[in-house]
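If your schedule permits, I should be very grateful for your opinion on a structural question. I would ask you to consider whether the tokens describe a fold that such a sequence might reasonably adopt. Thank you for your consideration; the sequence and its tokens are set out here.
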Amino acid sequence: MAQTRKKASSARRTGAAETPKASARAPRASVDVVEEEKGFGLEEGIVFFTTILLIVAFFMIDRARGSYGEGMFFK
């Protein structure tokens, strides 16, 4: 019985040692480098539109408050 246990444990050791060597030789995936497009994309358009909208809203509110004498630019 002791001999069969030794054989089983030695088989496990050799199997575990072979696995890392096999995975180390696996082919590596290649990576393609892609340049970003130059120009005005969707995200930049949303940022630009939101900024302009906030500035216009600020001046519209200031104009409305200017009729009460409370505006910063319009009085």
Summary: The chain has a mean pLDDT of 79. The chain has two helices and no strands.
